[in-house]
Hints:
With 117 residues, the chain is of the alpha+beta class. The chain has one domain: CATH 3.30.1330.130. 40% of the residues lie in helices and 15% in strands. It is built from 4 helices and 4 strands. It has a 4-stranded mixed sheet, covered by helices on one side. α1 crosses α2 and α2 (20-36) packs across α4. The mean pLDDT is 91.
Amino acid sequence: MRTLDDILRESxxxxxxxxxxxxxxARMALYASELLGLDLPRKxxxxxxxxxxxxxxxxxxxxxxxCHVGGRTLRILDLGKVAATFTDACTGISIRVCxxxxxxxxxxxxxxxxxxx
Length: 117
């Protein structure tokens, strides 16, 4: 399994910079994979990710999971929330993950120079 730093390097290359929401997306994916017992990134279609937001968080999800829209393993349902549901297609188990209130501060530690709203 890749480290968080490896995932963030890939995500920031795709996104052109690193921002806190990419960190949140990557950490959410890593946590879901731990709970589901799945190795990441996936090269098969066993994991389905439904992102409830668009933009930065999704880049972190993609880098961590290997899921993408073109492969029909990532769906974006923009509800304006930083949350995602991870489904193991083999077991049918789904887990919805959203960041805790303190996680934004932790994510900022990975990208202290990022612009913030």
